[in-house]
């Protein structure tokens, strides 16, 4: 059947030569379409003798399948080529910026408060709060700072205006978070463990002072809480908060009217390449004030000092934030300079917890 | 409080080094603020002799000196050094002061190096007084007498080796405002022995010509005792060098022997005294409350007007002294004073504090009296000071005159040696505890401890514990673990509001806002713009006029922050703050709010055209996101009752019935102008406390209602009046079939001139998409048509809207 070979060669060549889908369709029609050459030959089979028809039919079927496969193959090839060409034309400059997604930040003071909360919650402390405009009784008297005592003058207190005829002592902007001790004890009684973070106010403004800053108060009252427990608690806190393996604290006698005995607490540090390293070295830095709650303070809060005792401490939140995160200037905390907020701020999802660590 | 080491050693017999003393001071609670050690500054300068001074070969004014030095001290080897010297008095045989290379010369600020001066080697310097900063004398080098021991340190020779120590004394320790009190603490710590200070009563030679009387009102409270005496025929010249040196070292200016002696007692023994020029006192001295209006020229050169009740010392001619605070100029001592009246009294701390504060006088006397000095030392102090005046100025003393009596401060507290262990956690033997208290001046009778008169701060058992622990040193304290109050996994500890604060803060940051912490006080003008600025919220003593009022809202602080950032070139801002605002001047009249501010464009310019100016719907979406994070109900009302600092047409309030949950909107242009912010600016505030607590506390959620049946979406476009609010339409459509209609969403608004041209003046078109969710069978076309008809009818009824053709 030389005729079929010729036909095969012709169509295979035509298929290979088809440059697009339309040309290929023409080849298909001319071969396999109703009026196509191969279809015509297939149509002619009916007129053949059965024997001859069988042989010719088989050959024609082979040819038809072969051409059909070649058509399909060529079609897929053309489609790929067309897609390739299209994709090539669809080039984009992917170095262009992506669509903007806003990225906000959390202020270091909030972040550090969350860190404090995570650590002290683990030690069984809850979080207490109190008003920032405070009566002088809560801010001073209840804390064993009587009127006219020099200790009261040292507080650089802001006083609220008193209307004429109102003869009560003026309210103050709380000078420390210690009045929350009294409020928490009055509300809950003993035993108790609370921390009280928040804003406090002192009439002071220079390189290292701002008239508003943040403190955290700690209070633990039970039947036999000691100053040694206080030291342990602070050591644990400092180790966890500053994320160092070892810390060393030094208690130094001092005086606060609301604690007795009172101690300033220093932390051991060194300066290496301009960076503060806590836990080692030969320098000491004062980080907080503390002591055993004065019996008069317990009594003022309605707790019997013969039955209960415990410790309190007060620490500057801004200060420990500066220390931990290397922030140089306190005043910048409250200036809301966008560059500062972005640089020293924290990501929204960077939520301190002890299981994953305080930082992300 | 400042003092010198030699002054301390007048009271403390000790072999402790300066460093040991400094550590003990800080550890005992007297924090060392600073030390000026002359040895550190001038220790390298030693006495040396010029063996021979000869003319410099190349310079007329210079001499080449062969100098005998003893760098290791008088007992060390002699070393000859060549020094080129320009001083006119440099000559053979002169004994002077030599500084070797490597020395820092304080007077010139130069570090000495070996050098060559005009071709001749020079290895060090012969010094003038100015180079040592001892005086301004620079006419020549220091000359010392023949025979002065070579090699000794010049500061030792000159008696300048007296370190000055500056400690911070806590307000409970008036006794430590005298050197002796500090010495007593150090002795109790074991750093030496407190030297005896015998008091000898000096016999008067004549009755005091000046009498004293305390007004009965003050005898009861104010001035229980006042003593004094006249010393006749004193010579009030300059005080001796040693006293001047000590006073100068602690920053006091020597005035005259009499005045210097009173200062010396103030700082040495915490016993302020006053000296009157007896010749200028007319009649007796009366201690009495001021009537009010009296004037007195005080020793600081200022005239003070007294208020009624403040304590005065007067004579026949009028007020002479502000009792316990400052003497008067008229009767003050001068170099010409011959007869002096020496006063030693005890003043009530509270009265002194109140007067001192009212008159704004900070004197060393007030500082001590208001902290409470030892009343028992009143007459003893007078005797000691009399002796010193007699020693330094001569004269003849009168008898002591005294009115009133030394107040009895005797009291005692139970001393329980076990308390130190139970309260502090330090194990200190009882004998040591008793020894400590005794060394501090306490009298122990069995288990009762009587504090000494100079310790008014000791008011209970806990104070005894503190004294023992303090002296034993808290640095010995070892931390002891403290178990949680309850075993097991700790319970959550945050209150619902605290959790909300956290959620709101983190949500806003996630939405792209930068958290700010701004001051709680703002200026009166800004406060007034935001509904504040009343007197109730005014700070009486603000640090500046910018910080005079407690903030009524967070927005003014954020707007000020925005203005500052815009001034730095940051025009597009998203800022927020979460914190207290103040509704009144009473404790508790504050509430927590979260306020966010959007200014400018919501994105930078980019190739995708993302940039657009922020608008009300950005603020609204963020307010809704925060409310959602707080668990606020989804069905809320949007009203228009907003505060005056919002644009009245472009702002809204999200509420639940009468409860306002949040506000959002464009900031009023007048407010923006007043706060210097370039707009547009959108703000939102969420009132965290207002959001209702979820009623159900169970953790399980309601079962999910998810139908397998295909939902149907139908869109409707209505023509309505311009003023019709979309929410009215949505609610009306929703009401058409509450069971079947799962959601109604506004998806298009067509408004403006083109819209009115098409649909008529004052009209707009709103398009909503309604989602129908069948639950038991697929909806038929007829059923859908029926619901659609009801929706159109309801919307028409509620809004007057007609289906857009």
UniProtKB/TrEMBL annotation, chain A:
Key words, A-Z: Aminoacyl-tRNA synthetase, ATP-binding, Cytoplasm, Ligase, Magnesium, Metal-binding, Nucleotide-binding, Protein biosynthesis
Description of how the protein assembles with itself and partners: Tetramer of two alpha and two beta subunits.
EC numbers for this chain: 6.1.1.20
Cofactor binding comment, as recorded: Binds 2 magnesium ions per tetramer.
CDD domains the record matches: PheRS_alpha_core
Domain Aminoacyl-transfer RNA synthetases class-II family profile: 110-335
Descriptive protein name: Phenylalanine--tRNA ligase alpha subunit
Cofactor(s) the protein needs: Mg(2+)
Domain of life: Bacteria
Database matches in InterPro entries: aa-tRNA-synth_II, aa-tRNA-synth_II/BPL/LPL, Phe-tRNA-synth_IIc_asu, Phe-tRNA_ligase_II_N, Phe_tRNA_ligase_alpha1_bac, Phenylalanyl-tRNA_Synthase, tRNA-bd_arm
Subcellular localization, as worded in the UniProt entry: Cytoplasm
Pfam families: Phe_tRNA-synt_N (PF02912), tRNA-synt_2d (PF01409)
GO terms assigned for molecular function: ATP binding; magnesium ion binding; phenylalanine-tRNA ligase activity; tRNA binding
Chief location bin: cytoplasm
Gene3D superfamilies cross-referenced by the UniProt entry: Bira Bifunctional Protein, Domain 2
Natural source organism: Neogemmobacter tilapiae
GO cellular component terms attached to this protein's record: cytoplasm
Positions bound to Mg(2+): 260
HAMAP family tied to this protein: Phe_tRNA_synth_alpha1
TrEMBL record, chain B:
Cofactor(s) essential for the protein: Mg(2+)
EC number, as in UniProt: 6.1.1.20
Residues that, per the record, bind Mg(2+): 457, 463, 466-467
Domain FDX-ACB, residue spans: 707-804
GO biological process assignments: phenylalanyl-tRNA aminoacylation
UniProt GO molecular function: ATP binding; magnesium ion binding; phenylalanine-tRNA ligase activity; tRNA binding
Cofactor, how bound (note): Binds 2 magnesium ions per tetramer.
Localization annotation: Cytoplasm
Transmembrane portions of the chain: none
Principal place of residence: cytoplasm
GO cellular component entries: phenylalanine-tRNA ligase complex
Domain of life according to the entry: Bacteria
Domain B5: 408-479
Domain TRNA-binding as annotated: residue spans: 39-155
Keyword tRNA-binding attributed: yes
Pfam family, one: B5
Known catalytic reactions: tRNA(Phe) + L-phenylalanine + ATP = L-phenylalanyl-tRNA(Phe) + AMP + diphosphate + H(+)
UniProt entry keywords in alphabetical sequence: Aminoacyl-tRNA synthetase, ATP-binding, Cytoplasm, Ligase, Magnesium, Metal-binding, Nucleotide-binding, Protein biosynthesis, RNA-binding, tRNA-binding
Enzyme type, top EC level: ligase
Quaternary structure annotation from Swiss-Prot or TrEMBL: Tetramer of two alpha and two beta subunits.
Family, as annotated: Belongs to the phenylalanyl-tRNA synthetase beta subunit family. Type 1 subfamily.
Name this polypeptide is given: Phenylalanine--tRNA ligase beta subunit
Organism annotation: Neogemmobacter tilapiae
């Amino acid at each position: 059947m030389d005729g079929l070979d010729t036909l095969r060669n012709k169509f295979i060549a035509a298929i290979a030569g088809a440059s697009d889908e339309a040309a290929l369709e023409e080849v298909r029609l001319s071969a396999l379409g109703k009026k196509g050459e191969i279809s015509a030959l297939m149509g002619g089979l009916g007129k053949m003798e059965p024997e001859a028809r069988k042989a010719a039919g088989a050959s024609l079927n082979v040819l038809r399948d072969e051409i059909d496969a070649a058509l399909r193959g060529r079609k897929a090839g053309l489609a790929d080529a067309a897609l390739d060409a299209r994709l090539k034309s669809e080039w984009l400059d992917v170095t262009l910026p992506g669509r903007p997604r806003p990225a906000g930040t959390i202020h270091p003071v909030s972040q550090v408060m969350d860190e404090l909360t995570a650590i002290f919650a683990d030690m069984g402390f809850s979080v207490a709060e109190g008003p920032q405009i405070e009566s002088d009784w809560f801010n001073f008297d209840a804390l064993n700072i009587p009127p006219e005592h020099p200790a009261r003058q040292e507080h650089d207190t802001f006083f609220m205006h008193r209307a004429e005829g109102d003869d009560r002592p003026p309210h103050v902007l709380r000078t420390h978070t210690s009045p929350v001790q009294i409020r928490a004890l009055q509300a809950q009684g003993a035993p108790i463990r609370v921390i009280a973070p928040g804003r406090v106010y002192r009439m002071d403004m220079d390189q290292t002072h701002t008239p508003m800053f943040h403190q955290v108060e700690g209070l633990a009252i039970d039947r036999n809480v000691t100053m040694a427990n206080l030291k342990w608690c602070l050591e644990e806190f400092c180790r966890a908060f500053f994320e160092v393996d070892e810390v060393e604290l030094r208690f130094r006698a001092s005086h606060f009217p609301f604690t007795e005995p009172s101690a300033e607490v220093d932390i051991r540090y060194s300066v290496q390449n301009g960076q503060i390293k806590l836990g080692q070295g030969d320098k000491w830095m004062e980080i907080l004030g503390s002591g055993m709650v004065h019996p008069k303070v317990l009594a003022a809060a309605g707790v019997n000092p013969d039955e209960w005792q415990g410790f309190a401490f007060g620490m500057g939140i801004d200060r420990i934030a500066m220390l931990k995160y290397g922030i140089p200037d306190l005043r910048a905390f409250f200036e809301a300079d966008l560059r500062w907020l972005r640089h020293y701020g924290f990501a929204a999802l960077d939520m301190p917890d002890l299981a994953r660590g305080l930082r992300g | 409080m400042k003092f010198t080491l030699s002054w301390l050693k007048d009271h403390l017999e000790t072999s402790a080094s300066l460093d040991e003393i400094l550590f003990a001071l800080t550890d005992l609670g007297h924090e060392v603020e600073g030390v000026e050690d002359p040895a550190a500054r001038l220790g390298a300068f030693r006495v040396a002799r010029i063996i021979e001074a000869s003319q410099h070969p190349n310079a007329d004014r210079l001499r080449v000196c062969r100098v005998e030095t003893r760098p290791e001290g008088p007992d060390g080897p002699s070393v000859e050094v060549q020094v080129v010297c320009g001083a006119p008095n440099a000559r053979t045989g002169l004994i002077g002061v030599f500084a070797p290379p490597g020395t820092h010369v304080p007077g010139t600020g130069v570090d000495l190096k070996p050098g060559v001066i005009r071709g001749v080697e020079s290895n060090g310097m012969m010094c003038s007084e100015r180079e040592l900063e001892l005086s301004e004398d620079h006419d020549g080098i220091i000359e010392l007498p023949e025979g002065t021991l070579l090699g000794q340190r010049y500061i030792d020779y000159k008696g300048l080796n007296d370190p000055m120590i500056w400690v911070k004394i806590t307000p409970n320790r008036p006794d430590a405002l005298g050197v002796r009190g500090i010495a007593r603490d150090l002795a109790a710590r074991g750093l030496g022995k407190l030297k005896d200070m015998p008091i000898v009563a000096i016999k008067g030679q004549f009755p005091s010509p000046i009498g004293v009387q305390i007004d009965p009102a003050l005898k009861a409270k104010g001035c229980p005792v006042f003593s004094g005496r006249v010393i006749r025929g004193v010579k009030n010249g300059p005080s001796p060098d040693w006293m001047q040196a000590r006073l100068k070292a602690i920053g006091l200016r020597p005035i005259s022997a009499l005045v210097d002696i009173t200062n010396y007692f103030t700082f040495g023994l915490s016993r302020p005294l006053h000296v009157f020029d007896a010749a200028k006192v007319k009649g007796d001295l009366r201690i009495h409350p001021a009537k009010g209006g009296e004037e007195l020229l005080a020793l600081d050169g200022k005239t003070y007007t007294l208020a009624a009740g403040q304590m005065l010392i007067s004579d026949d001619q009028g007020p002479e002294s502000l009792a316990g605070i400052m003497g008067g100029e008229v009767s003050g001592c001068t170099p010409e004073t011959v007869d002096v009246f020496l006063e030693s009294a005890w003043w009530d701390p509270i009265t002194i504090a109140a007067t001192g504060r009212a008159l704004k006088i900070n004197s060393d006397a007030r500082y001590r009296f208001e902290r409470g000095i030892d009343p028992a030392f009143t007459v003893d102090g007078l005797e000691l000071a009399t002796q010193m005046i007699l020693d330094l100025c001569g004269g003849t003393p009168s008898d002591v005159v005294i009115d009133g009596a030394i107040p009895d401060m005797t009291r005692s507290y139970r001393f329980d040696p076990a308390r130190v262990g139970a309260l502090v956690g330090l194990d200190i033997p009882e004998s040591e505890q008793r020894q400590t208290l005794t060394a501090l001046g306490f009298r122990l009778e069995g288990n009762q401890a009587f504090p000494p008169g100079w310790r008014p701060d000791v008011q209970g058992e806990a104070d005894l514990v503190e004294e023992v622990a303090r002296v034993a040193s808290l640095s010995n304290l070892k931390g002891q673990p403290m178990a949680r109050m309850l075993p097991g996994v700790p319970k959550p500890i945050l209150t619902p509001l605290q959790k909300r604060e956290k959620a709101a803060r983190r949500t806003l940051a996630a939405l792209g806002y930068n958290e700010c912490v701004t001051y709680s006080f703002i200026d009166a003008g800004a406060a007034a713009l935001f509904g504040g600025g009343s007197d109730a919220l005014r700070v009486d003593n603000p640090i500046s006029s910018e910080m005079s009022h407690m903030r009524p809202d967070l927005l003014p602080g954020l707007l000020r922050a925005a203005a500052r950032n815009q001034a730095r070139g940051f025009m597009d801002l998203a800022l927020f703050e979460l914190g207290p605002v103040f509704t009144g001047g009473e404790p508790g009249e504050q509430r927590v709010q979260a306020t966010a501010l959007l200014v400018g464009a919501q994105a930078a310019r980019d190739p995708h055209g993302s940039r657009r100016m922020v608008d009300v719907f950005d603020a609204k979406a963020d307010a809704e996101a925060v409310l959602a994070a707080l668990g606020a109900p989804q069905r809320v009302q949007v009203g228009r009752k907003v505060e005056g600092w919002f644009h009245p047409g472009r702002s809204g309030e999200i509420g639940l019935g009468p409860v306002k949950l949040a506000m959002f909107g464009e900031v009023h242009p007048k407010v923006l102008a007043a706060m210097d912010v370039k707009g547009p600016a959108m703000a939102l505030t969420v009132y965290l406390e207002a959001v209702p607590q979820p009623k159900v506390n169970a953790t399980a959620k309601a079962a999910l209602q998810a139908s397998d049946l295909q939902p149907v979406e139908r869109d409707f476009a209505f023509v309505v009046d311009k003023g019709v609010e979309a929410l009215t339409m949505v609610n009306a459509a929703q009401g058409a079939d509450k069971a079947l209609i799962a959601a109604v969403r506004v998806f298009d608004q067509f408004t403006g001139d083109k819209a009115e041209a098409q649909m008529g003046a004052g009209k707009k078109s709103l398009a909503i998409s309604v989602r129908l969710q069948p639950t038991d069978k697929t909806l038929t076309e007829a059923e859908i048509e029926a619901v659609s008809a009801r929706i159109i009818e309801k919307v028409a009824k509620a809004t007057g809207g007609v289906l857009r053709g």
